[in-house]
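Justification of computing resources. Each target in the renewal requires a structure prediction run like the one illustrated here; the chain below, 688 residues long, is used simply to show the kind of job we budget for.
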Amino acid sequence: MINWKAHPFLRLLLPLIVGIWLGDWLRWTPSRYLFVLPFLFLPFFFRYVAFKVAFRHRGLYGLLVNLFFIVFGFVLVSYRPEIYQDNHFGKYIDGDNYLVGIVAKPPTHKTRLNALLSIKEIITNNATHAVRGHLYVSFPDTANIHYGQLIALHVKPKPFSKVANPYAFDFRRWQYYQNVHYQAFAKENQWIVLAENQGNRIANMAFRLRKRFQKVLHRIINNSRDVGVASALVLGVKDDLSEDTKEAFSSTGAMHVLAVSGLHVGIVSIGLRYLMLAIFGRAKARRWWRLVFQLAGVWFFVLLTGASASVLRAGVMFSIVEIGLALDRRASIFNSIAASAFLLLLWNPFLLFQVGFQLSYLALSGIVFFQPHIYKLWVFESSALDFIWKLSSISMAAQISTFPIGIYYFHHFPLSFFLSGMVVVPAATILLPFTIVVFLFDFLSPAIADFLGKALAFLYHLNTEFIFRLSHFEWMKLNDIYFSKWTVLLCFGMIGSIGAWIISGRKQLIFYVLGLLTLLSLERNVLKYQSANRSEIIFFKVPKADAIGFISGPHLAHYDRDSLAQKKWKYATQALKIRYGITQETPLSEKVSSPDFGLVKANNFWNYKGRIIEMVPPILPGPRDFKSNIIYVTENLDTNTLSHLNADTILLGNQVSRKNAEQIKQFFLERDVIVYNLREEGGWIIDN
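Resulting structure tokens:
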């Protein structure tokens, strides 16, 4: 069984995670938490006052310690959202204001330039207020915005919109866990740069270097695809990655190489360790000098690559390990992993809900636990075969521990992960230090850097070309897989039971695995039954277009009046099709009728299994002697014609202006008619 004494941080981490999850699930406002604060002192009271460390009370003390960290995590996550702070800028944005803030991170480029501003002041008509909070600002793509600038903005911040369509990516939720709650769109004449270099000096230097190194990569590597891979692998910059490149690396299980993480930090840390030994020697008296310079180099690399959750985890963990080595204390690797997670969650409890953080810790834990057991299954006398098998066992161990949430978030599983792992991992151990050497020579002699860059560009091209060729094997991809939260929990339950069996050797645990496998099979059959018997109507939120979907079992028939581009349609519906297990899709024309499907269309009326949907305009003149179930308003309407409409529900489409939508909404709410606005509320599902 687990020796908990050897893993003290693991004992503290588990209740802390429970408390953070519970606090996020309940999401009470901080003012309601005062009644739980006294519980924070109970463990210490019972430990030092009441029971005098009596042995017979150790169970109660352990329970109270767990309760302490559950409540502590609960309170910690409740006070984390900056929007609850009294001086948050969101409390002052009702009028015509100017906001003054510092660009807190290097901006990212998509169709526009997106930057995160740390707001410091808000200027109203009467006064200037010192405020706090972060604002996500979208600038024109041509804007010259960079880290550390002090900017004054004349914009109207708004909360992030609700999720656009059912089961689609929830950008508002994602930003909530970044502790960002407002966004704004800035036009050319709506901002002015007040000052430069207002950010952290070390971070500013790191980001300036990163920008210079990006220019070096663009100079020495001619292939834009390879430049994107190099920038992501070494600098953590993904702006130059094309969608094709992301898809190729993702579908082959190699995407982790493009996200700077433990592999990259480990290479840098080990390289710095040998460099410090060469400079300072092995004398014990100089170990602290070696440690200081090594950790300084590691954390500068963390800053240089953007300080993502995975690289932060690696930085903290390697720091703990190196400090332990300097103190001649070799701690349990699991305790080091738990300690790094514990410290990071104390600093930012929202990290627990970030995909990178979850994948990073699960992958590392899986490698540490499962890899030695997998590796021992086969022994090869050939050193080459042994090396290949070792890399394969690492990839397998990582996949075992991450596949449930990998499928949950990304809906695919790459069967080629072991092949890509045998190439990209060794390639990364060569490319990363080689690229750093080229960067150093760029300071000393750009001519030598350019000469070495030719070999570097060739290696990047080989690596990227291999991944692209591997991605062409469609049979090595399992796509469009849906895992519910219950599926994920059951899978992790089986993985945990197998792990416990490996540790304890208790064969009875196999019955737990079989029981969980039975529950998993039952849950999957329930999902199949729901999919086969589903009957729904879905109105999609698509910019400047109107789209309706009719679902009968695994069949989706859809109509859009504006002939949507395939990319827009896929973006709006892909998540729903995976969730519902849609296997057949039929586009509908203006004159379609499909009695077998239960769908009939006449003029601007749809009848789907008895539910009447009327699309307006046009509006039939004169009084009505019938009532539609839903009237779908697709364009602005003359308010004088609203009295001709008669329905249970008025649905306002994507092309109705905000002003007209408010007028229509007011008219029908006064008549107790339900009004639903796709622009404000997102896509709408109706059971039929």
